[in-house]
């Protein structure tokens, strides 16, 4: 039977909200002794892991033949056609410090193509989603990227490098350029939320390097369905697995990308 992506997307939103409620409940009783260190400045806890287990089991029930690319490695099953790309808690550093900005991010790939994205920002109870050939939505309302025509009218989001400092000098040059020539820069601490905010027009653009597929897959798809553009730093399509992403509204995307390219040679 063909997969009905619209129905599946509604089910994924319901699952995201259910697991989001678990994360919220654990945040209320969380203590920093429960934090484990995965790598330099890279943290995890039972909350990320349990959230991922709940998502993998829920998504497997929704689409039994599907496989997974999941941050905490709960399942490494490969689906012949369909694979979910999951970040069970994007914004873990915010979560452990009690800063209220963290999300669940779920994307679905059919072969090599993204066909669904869902981001649930738990604290604001905001669910962003889209499926193949659909518009993009936030809690049932259609959303679209902003129409701001130039960088001078833009608010830009980014993520600061926190373990890969090889390109820090170029990064800082881009940062200074945007500091001088835009309304300002924001660092929310959740790449999925940054992308969701581009999709609904709160930010004109987002860029970061060294991100993983689970940080960006759902958000990139939702931005595209909301009328925005997404590329890597070369202006090409390798933004899911290529560890570089630029996403923005259509109107000032070229100016945005060119500014990044001027410094990242
Ligand atoms: C992180 C967040 C953050 C970004 C990092 C990611 P995590 O994901 O998206 O905004 O700057 O690069 O690793 O570890 O909280 O899932
Ligand atoms: Ca992440
Ligand atoms: Ca995560």
Q: Which helices and strands occur, and which strands form pairs?
A:
Elements: H1 5-28, E1 36-39, E2 42-44, H2 46-62, E3 67-70, E4 82-90, H3 92-97, E5 103-110, E6 113-121, E7 126-131, E8 136-138, E9 141-143, E10 155-158, H4 168-181, E11 184-186, H5 191-199, E12 205-209, H6 213-225, E13 229-231, E14 244-248, H7 253-263
Parallel strand pairs: 3-4, 10-11, 10-12
Antiparallel strand pairs: 1-2, 4-5, 5-6, 6-7, 7-8, 8-9, 12-14, 13-14
The chain binds D-MYO-inositol-1-phosphate and calcium ion (CA) (2 copies).
Residues 87, 90, 191, 214-215 line the site of one calcium ion (CA).
Describe the fold and architecture:
It is a single chain. The chain is of the alpha+beta class and 265 residues long. The chain has two domains: 5-143, 2-Layer Sandwich (Fructose-1,6-Bisphosphatase, Chain A, domain 1), CATH 3.30.540; 151-263, D-Maltodextrin-Binding Protein, domain 2 (3-Layer(aba) Sandwich), CATH 3.40.190. The chain is 35% helix and 26% strand. The protein has helices at 5-28, 46-62, 92-97, 168-181, 191-199, 213-225, 253-263; strands at residues 36-39, 42-44, 67-70, 82-90, 103-110, 113-121, 126-131, 136-138, 141-143, 155-158, 184-186, 205-209, 229-231, 244-248. Strands 3-4-5-6-7-8-9 form a seven-stranded mixed β-sheet, sandwiched between helices. Strands 11-10-12-14-13 form a five-stranded mixed β-sheet, sandwiched between helices. Strand 10, helix 4 (168-181) and strand 11 form a beta-alpha-beta unit. The protein is globular. One calcium ion is lined by residues 48, 71, 87, 89-90, 92.
């Amino acid at each position: 039977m063909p997969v009905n992506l619209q129905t599946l997307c509604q089910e994924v939103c319901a699952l995201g909200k259910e697991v989001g409620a678990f994360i919220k409940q654990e945040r209320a009783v969380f203590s920093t002794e429960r934090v484990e260190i995965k790598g330099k400045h890279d943290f995890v806890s039972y909350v990320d892991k349990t959230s991922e287990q709940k998502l993998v089991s829920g998504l497997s029930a929704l689409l039994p033949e599907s496989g997974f690319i999941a941050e905490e490695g709960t399942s490494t099953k490969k689906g012949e056609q369909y694979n979910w790309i999951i970040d069970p808690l994007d914004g873990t550093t915010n979560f452990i410090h009690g800063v209220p900005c963290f999300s669940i991010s779920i994307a679905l790939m059919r072969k090599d193509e993204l066909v669904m994205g869902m981001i649930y920002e738990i604290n604001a109870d905001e669910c962003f989603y889209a499926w193949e050939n659909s518009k993009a939505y936030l809690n049932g309302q259609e959303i679209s990227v902003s129409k701001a025509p130039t960088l001078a009218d833009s608010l830009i989001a980014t993520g600061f490098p926190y373990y890969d400092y090889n390109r820090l000098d170029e990064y800082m040059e881009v940062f200074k350029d945007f500091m001088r020539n835009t309304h300002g820069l924001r660092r929310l601490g959740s790449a999925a939320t940054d992308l969701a905010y581009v999709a609904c027009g709160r930010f004109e653009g987002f860029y970061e390097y060294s991100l993983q597929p689970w940080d960006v897959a759902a958000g990139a798809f939702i931005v595209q369905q909301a009328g925005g553009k997404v590329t890597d730093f070369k202006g090409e399509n390798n933004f899911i697995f290529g560890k570089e992403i630029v996403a923005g509204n259509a109107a000032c995307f070229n100016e945005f990308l060119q500014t990044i390219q001027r410094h990242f040679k």
